[in-house]
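Z., the sequence and structure:
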Amino acid sequence: MRKFVATIAVAAAVLTLGGTAVAQAADVTTCRSANLAIGFGRVEGAAGTVYREVVLTNRGSGSCVLRGFPGVSYVDSAGNQVGAAAVRVGERGPLLTLSPGAAAISDVGFARVDNFDPDACRKTPVWGIRVFPPDETAPLYLPMTDQYGCAGDVSAFGAQLTVASVRS
């Protein structure tokens, strides 16, 4: 999608400048997992859900961009997904440019699994979460202690995980 948008911008510039394309700046690429550090930020609780900031920090040598929702799911100690992935909440958000050392944050909601029907939930200990940064296919992992997820389908009762678009 990013390459398509860049192609449209170049085509518009060529039309505007009478057919002459001039490179004005280096293309800023999407942030890749290999160049991102991951960690937890602030933690807050509300009505049966704990919200944790998942912080993605550019540890590369150049700027990169992020926009949209990370993919988030619980995983067991073998890296297998436990239950459904996080449900997206809110709007996609603006394009964020991360210079080296800068961070983007996504708010992730962790529902208390004891609030779900136990037969539907099938409460299962998890190792942590797997996070796919927006527009990336290589995952990052964050360990958690004393965390449980629902191995069963609880969609009739709500979402065990929610995720918001990245923000600065």
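Helices lie at 2-16, 118-121. The chain is about 10% helix and 45% strand.

Let me know what you think.
H.
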